[in-house]
Each structure stands twice: as structure tokens, then as C-alpha cells.
Amino acid sequence: MLRKMNGYSQEQIAEKIGISRQAYAKWENGMTIPDIEKAALLAQVWGQIVIPKAARDHLGFNGGDRLIVLSDEVGIALLPADYFESKIRELKDLIAEKL
Description:
Elements: H1 2-5, H2 10-17, H3 21-28, H4 36-46, H5 53-59, E1 67-71, E2 76-80, H6 81-98
Antiparallel strand pairs: 1-2
């Protein structure tokens, strides 16, 4: 989502972190998980984080799931991206109705 919102191609991101476009596409689609060194490079580009498997299992997340990180001065919250996006669409529709 972030890549598309910012107008980058998979090729451009792959080039920035030194991998093939095919490898990046597999990460983005959740088919593979990057090794820790590549994940760190990706985090520098997109701010992505790696959640340990035990935590993913406990929270009901899967490797490659798109999550939204929300934060304030107190802490952070992780939300599934599909849920967050649906709530944003609902809010947008509600605002449009009021105008």
C-alpha cells in the first residue's frame, strides 16, 4: 500500500535494497519473508517491521500481513490494513453524506 501510495514500482524498491524485483514481489505478496538484514534495509525504505513468529501467532497475524501502525505519545497500535482501510472508507462516506 505504501509503495503504491508513493508511486514506486516494485523494481524501484528492489533496487534501493539490493534485491531482485521477483524477490521483492514475493515479500510484498507474503510468499516469502525477508532475512533480517534485508528486512532492516526494507525498514529504512518503508518503515516495515518484523514481528517474531510467536507474537504473530498470539495476535493472529500471518507473515506478510499488511498492518497499519498507529501511535501517539503513549504507545502504538497494530491494525490489520484491510480493517483500517475499510474504516477509513466508512468515515469518508459518512463525511460525504454530511456535506
